[in-house]
Amino acid sequence: MSPSVPLQEMIRAIRSARTQCEERGVIQRECAAIRAQFRQTDNGGRSHNLAKLLYVHMLGYPAHFGQMECVRMIASPRYSEKRVGYLGAMMLLDEKQDASLLITNSIKNDLSHSNQYVQSLALCTLACMGSAEMCRDLAPEIDRLLRSSNSYIKKKAALCAVHIVRKVHELGELFVPSARSLLSEKNHGVLHGAVVLITELCERSPETLERFRKAVPDLVQIMKGLVISGYSPDHDVAGVSDPFLQVRILRLLRILGRNNEAASDAMNDLLAQVATNTDSTKTVGNAVLYETVLSVLDIKSESGLRVLAVNILGRFLLNNDRNIRYIAMTSLQKIVSTDHNAVQRHRGTIVDCLKDQDASVKRRALELSLALVSASNIRSMMKELLIFLSSCPPELRAHAASGIFNAAERYAPSKRWHIDTILHVLTTAGGDVRDETVPNLIQLITNTSELHCYTVHKLYRALLTDISQQPLVQVACWCIGEYGDLLLKGECQETEAVQVTEDDVLDALEIVLQSHMSTPTTRGFALTATMKLSTRITDNVDRIRSIVSIYGSCIDVELQQRAVEYNALFKKYDHMRAAVLERMPVIQKNSLGQTNGELSEEPIKESQPGKVKQEEMALPQQPAGQVCDLLDLLGGSQEPLQPSSSVGGSASAQLTAAPASAGGDLLDLLGGFEPTPLVPAPTVTVYEKNGVTLTLICERQSESGLTVTLTASNSTDSDISSFTLQAAVPKSVQLQMRAPSRDSLPAHGGAKLTQLVVLNNPNKVNLKMRIRVSYTCQGSVVQDTVQVDSFPGL
Amino acid sequence: MIKAILIFNNHGKPRLIRFYQYFSEDMQQQIIRETFHLVSKRDDNVCNFLEGGSLIGGSDYKLIYRHYATLYFVFCVDSSESELGILDLIQVFVETLDKCFENVCELDLIFHMDKVHYILQEVVMGGMVLETNMNEIVAQVEVQNRMEKSEGGLSAAPARAVSAVKNMNLPEIPRNINIGDINIKVPSLSPF
């Protein structure tokens, strides 16, 4: 019986099964038969049993009981059984299975077998699934085989050596001399394997790279032979002589020539020759050209060659074949940072590729377009990108949206354009934008005070048309809440105004509140906006009261809490409502300032999280700040009105706890003033205790603006960590604290800490500042407070 | 490095799977299903490169595929391989199959899965391209097949036996054997 017939019978049986269930039945019967036959020791048809098992494995059924059989077959003297055994080993075993250790000895014996095909089986298996221990054991064998005279074995040994080097990096040293000598081979298969081995060795270790740089002339010689030689039927693929070897050598030359003048010089001529002589009408020629272009752009080539390379890429871009266009864009992506101007020339073609039907080409075109956006072409590029966004495949939407936001932020020609662009993105792809877009947009809007009217009108109109895009709805609610009075005024310079009555606005917000499409966050936004409107409109305050009180029994805890608090604001603290719901101040980027100058415990290093925390704290902190200031007016009654909820982050939770305590302390301390006599000098030492010194420099910036620089130093023997400063000023003065330069003070005055405080005193009240110092020294937390009553230079 | 080679038909049934990195059996079947899903969505006139498969790992990996009649040949490679080179390699592999099986069709791949594996072993080894010269590959495969057959004796299935004898290079049989005076005529054997 030929080995394959039983296999074919089984395959026929499986294929004739009409349902999945029948197929499973057939396979289970076959597997049971195979298992029974495995248990018998001597069996003539062992190889076809294993072949059947491998077929079943391919279909996805468990085949692990064949592992030991593989080991037994590999040890058999018959070639047919060895062959199937090794195939089974490669399919079923891997280094994690215990059975793989058992084949090490067989592989070792087979590597020195007299039959070259048995040797090749062993090499193949070692290269596929050799574990690190196996590689270590057998590396000297492989090195010996690299020097054998049989080219069939040599090429397999070369690739096996690559696998060994990947598994055990240190063994690379062992193969360097043999690899070097293999370069003088004539057989293309061996050359190919040698080049792959050398590439791997060079990528792993810089010293080896240095040594192989001396081989550049040899490689150049081989390439020249391939390029110039006439038609050789053995290696010809569509008119190009052994393109696979050419591509490999070009890649190796690239690695050798990188960052090295001498090697790059040696290759310049060759690369120019290949670039001009290769026929680019077929795919093979293009493959070689492509590799050449990449090499030229990566090494230190002369400028004429670089221009040639970019031109070839440009030609690729205009090629009809989509594959070529795809790889042209991939390579342009790699060089867009270094040769930006060269790539800019092809911007038109790239933007056209955005409209291609092929999803892969679109993806590449999007990446490249985003990289090509610059200040000069922002308007036209953005138009194209927005058109793309409306028709792009869903998997690319999020990426496109965030790319557009980044580009808009960096290069926006005007604020209005920026806001328009973001609104456009939110209307088209609102579901796919990232979460921080909402706070970013809100911050942007507050910063452009001249466009408040325009913005709120636009957002109101967007809200009326569609309330399914959550980020848009959130921003719209927030704006209507803040700038509702501008909306109701009905006049606007930038855009044609809509005559809106208070009822219309409240209707819109109510729709958002009740819609099933709104997420809890959105509802929260809408509720707060409704509340804010109570101070900005005159007639329908009762309606607002009723809306708010309905949500006092809402199932969502967040909404319920807000509603209850707002209700309290209506009932007991109606006189404070106006102050609490006043318009927000402009939110600064990169600053952690709130009106009572609190600092978070962790120093915020990046601006992005700082902004996010900023936004999330802005809503609850404003009332908290106001409340604390109001506290001293009312002389000390503890207010339960601490909005402890926040829009998002938990960071605000720990911070809202802090203002409560700060408020309490301020109460006591502001009660009794002890004016400390301060020396009126430009630099004032305001605090000196336990080796920690705090000095203050005051400078007037404008009519009412003032900057105070606080400098802290540590003259003790131990380091101080978590050093924070907090400041409080009288109510009418506005205070912003910028981020401190560091948060630890090394011993013996190793470094100083500075922090800038910006004050705005429009009412010109008597300026006093209370500073609280807190730090950790030798494991214990120290807190102290000092009051500064007179500022030099005021 | 080539991470996996998958051949499946237009309905997603695997015809050959070869992974050069360890994946559990479930993962393997999941990868096949996901790859089929991605590849079958593609039109015939779009480019042959696909990104975006998440299972087979990482942003560095691309799927390079070719569609021949009823079969998809998919190679999953990382960035160290030249994409156009792999496209050509798929072509070389298919042409080699054609030479070995004489006008290869899907049924050949189904019923001779092990043979296809042995041919593939001559082209790609351990995830790296080994040999690209078609004649060389075919020659080596032939020698190995002959070795295997010689071990099993001439007890092949009837069809195989016929083709084996047909391909055998029969040396010239002398029609006249002259041993001195005796003239023995050997009857001419008709090929069977």
TrEMBL record, chain A:
Pfam families on file: Adaptin_N, Alpha_adaptinC2
Subcellular localization: Cytoplasmic vesicle membrane; Endomembrane system; Golgi apparatus
Superkingdom of source: Eukaryota
Membrane-topology annotation of the record: Peripheral membrane protein
GAE domain location: 679-792
InterPro entries for this protein: Adaptor_Complx_Large_Subunit, AP1_complex_gsu, ARM-like, ARM-type_fold, Clathrin/coatomer_adapt-like_N, Clathrin_a/b/g-adaptin_app_Ig, Clathrin_app_Ig-like_sf, GAE_dom
PROSITE patterns attached to this UniProt entry: GAE
KW Protein transport (keyword) present: yes
SUPFAM superfamilies: ARM repeat, Clathrin adaptor appendage domain
Gene3D superfamilies according to UniProt: 2.60.40.1230, Leucine-rich Repeat Variant
Keywords: Cytoplasmic vesicle, Golgi apparatus, Membrane, Protein transport, Transport
Keyword flag Membrane: yes
GO cellular component assignments: AP-1 adaptor complex
GO BP: any one term: axis elongation
Family: Belongs to the adaptor complexes large subunit family.
Protein name in UniProt: AP-1 complex subunit gamma
TrEMBL record, chain B:
Subcellular location(s) of the protein: Cytoplasmic vesicle membrane; Golgi apparatus
Record's bilayer topology term: Peripheral membrane protein
InterPro entries per the UniProt record, alphabetical: AP_complex_ssu, AP_mu_sigma_su, APS3, Clathrin_sm-chain_CS, Longin-like_dom_sf
Keyword field contains Hydrolase: no
Origin superkingdom: Eukaryota
Domain AP complex mu/sigma subunit: 1-147
Keywords: Cytoplasmic vesicle, Golgi apparatus, Membrane, Protein transport, Transport
GO terms of biological process kind: Golgi to vacuole transport; intracellular protein transport
Any one GO CC term of the record: AP-3 adaptor complex
Family: Belongs to the adaptor complexes small subunit family.
The protein's name: AP complex mu/sigma subunit domain-containing protein
